[in-house]
């Protein structure tokens, strides 16, 4: 997958992938989050999946404060919960 292999990369993410290779290249669907990559979450509910991804990382040893979560998108109604 081009996005996972070339875009969603960086020093920290690559280190996480090396330590957790079984979670790499897997997608979750909606609010059934079993990986950090989620598809199919409807507009106005995306913040729910974002929080579940943050919790998923926490269960895998990566603590992310809610105040350090940022959301970028093209629909205003999806960004309001992050303001």
How is this structure best described in words?
This protein is mostly helical. Helices cover 40% and strands 5% of the residues.
C-alpha-based Rg, rounded: 13 Å
| Beta-strand content bin | under 5%
What structural class results from the helix and strand content?
A: mainly alpha
Task: Count the E strands.
Answer: 2
Shape: globular
Number of helices: 4
Q: What share of residues is helical? A: 25-40%
Mean pLDDT: 90
Distance between the termini: 31 Å
Low-confidence stretches: none
H-E order: HHEEHH
Summarize the main sheet: 2 strands, parallel
Keywords:
83 residues; two-stranded parallel sheet; 40% helix; 4 helices
Give a quick precis of the structure.
By secondary structure, the chain is mainly alpha-helical.
Q: Which helices and strands occur, and which strands form pairs?
A:
Layout (H helix, E strand, L loop, with lengths): L1 H6 L3 H9 L8 E2 L8 E2 L6 H14 L16 H4 L4
Parallel strand pairs: 1-2
